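Hey, quick one: can you model this chain's 3D structure?
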Amino acid sequence: MGRKMVNYMPFFSPQEKSKWFMDKKSNEEKEARFSEIMQQPPYPVDEIFELIADATGAKKDEWILAALHAFAEAGDFDSAYRLVREFKSELGAKARGDVVREGLKKATKDRLITSFIESVGFGVRPFADSVGRLGRLLSFQPGALVLNTAWGLGEIKRLDAFYRRVTVDFRTRRGHQLTFDAACETLLPAPENHILVTAKADPDRIQKMLTEEPGKFVKEMLGSFGNMPITRLEELSAQHGFVKTANWKSFWERARADLRKDNLVEIPTRRAEPIVLKAAAETYGGGWFTAFAQMTDPKSILTAVREFVGAGKFKGLDDDGRAKIAARLAFALKGARKVDDALYARLAACHAELKLDDAVSAKARSYLLTDERYLAAARDLPASEMSRLVAFLVAENEGETKMKLFEALPQMCFPLLSATLDHYRNDEACESAVAELLKTPHAPATLVVLVLGRYHEMKKVKKGESGQEVEAEMEAGFSRWSKLPPLVVILTHAIAIGEGRQSGETLKMQNTVRRLFADQKWLRSIFDLLQPADQVLFFERFQASTTWDPATHHTIVVRMTHIVPTLAERQAKVAAPEVVERITSLRSYAERKDAYQRLINVEMPANAKRIEFARGYGDLSENAEYQYAKDEQRALMQKQTLMQEEIEAVKPTDFANVESDKVRPGTTVTITTADGADKTFTVLGEWDNDLERGIIANKTRLAQNMLGKKAGDTFDLPDAEGNVSTATIKSIAPLSDELRAWVQVPAGLSL
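Sure thing. Here's the predicted structure for all 751 residues.
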């Protein structure tokens, strides 16, 4: 032993040797002290914890287990649980879940606490998770307030050790029961400063905030629920009974006015982005510039600069500060280039507005104008940014740039188009470009909707006492645009936009057109600007449009006749729709009825048995088998209702005495396709289908295209992929004997 010690000693200096011996002596003393104090309770708990914290390695693990055993034997649950909580990383690393569970159970005689310990999954779940769950359950005492994401604030009413359930009263859900396991997953202790706790304890304070300090209410919501988008704030405010959905718009306008003055709150430009509540107001001192100089995210750089400018700090900024902001914005522009054109456009406009470096702004402007990148950028920009973008683009070489913009009017999204026309509202070249586009057969939908919605402003017209158009007294806005085509031409374009199926930007324009036409006040103002002949053209063109929603179309037609009563004599008489009898073959009807009987006599009783069996598993709210069976029951009941309605509505037939002068249910049709091939189909009822025999239902697209056709007529023939070609009806014949046998009731079934 002596030799070994001598061999190691050269590695230590004299001071290190002394410290090593002192530490060794100290550890021996600590071990002796730990052994001494663990001999007899009551134990000095704080000293035990200090000794364990100073220990390392196997000794620390040994002492933790010894202390747990001692506390368990002494029945000191509080100390045992504190030990487990403070040294959970050491216990978890050694996978001591089973040992801890038994030690904690031995430390208490309380059946409820024992039930908690059994419920949290020691030895099954990750150790830290089990410890956290136990802490949460221990906080769930009768009267304690808890939070649930779905039901809000609740109060613990009862805890059942035998069934391991928690009963909670929520505002909209009284006496709700959860298992201990579910409670750990869905309930959190409610902080005293949470707005829902405040609302329960002092509702008058909340009401005062809502009426007098809406901005403060929003800050309380953010502090309680975290940063969130405006839409989520509206949803939570309605859910917890603070602000009704119908009142939200006016409330938010007042709140936003308050929050804009608050430098602790950041309101986003997009509704989908969160409102941010800051921990402290920014002073914009040297620390801010140091942190700003280290920013690398382009979006964060832009936000920081705009906040800086909004706080009024940019005015009077020295050259060094301006240089730092210019450097970061230039860095952000490089980061956003070819990655996010919308962000690049926002950065470029901000850089130009601050007049930091003309060369950088010119380069950014050139980048956005090249290949019309600004068009793609505009599609992702908030509408509030469009005027900035247009002003930035035309700041240099305006004559050349504006002509590029006018050429791109058909490709512009609606907000960019609106901003461009606003910018050039008094420009004759802009008026000419718009007028020429509106004279084309297929004018851009965005331009049509924009001009139609602002026609009065653009033309500056109203009806005089004589019924003639006179210039309205408008000082602001557009100069009088006299080159626009007649209003009835623009209305014809709008009617076309409202027809058929649209997508993308055109779909948005279609919805706008339909809302305009449904607005009686707007519709009347349009008729007031039309001459009698144009009123008739507009009315008849709209009346001839058959692809609008029938109910909406009829309502608008009637409104037009109320606005101009003389149009009533031109209103087309709508013929009552032909009532088509719903039929199917005797075979298909019998098969469907048999399936219905099997549903109500076999499938539904079997489901009822499964529900009764699942009830035996206990708590229905946590019983998966019961929930599955109930879901199946709902589906079966829906199926029964649908089948019953169909069986009552559809009539069985054998298609006897069906004439074959044209294609109708109960006829066999031979067609000639575009490539000269012949094919034969038999059209029967709506439940009939047998592809091997060529039987198709009368509700199929192919049958619908052929119904009513005669020999020699052509029709659209769709294929399996949806492509359409032209085919010809070659011949029409009554059913063959084989098909007449097929439509009869099969053996073993009955009607």
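One thing worth noting: The radius of gyration is 40 Å.
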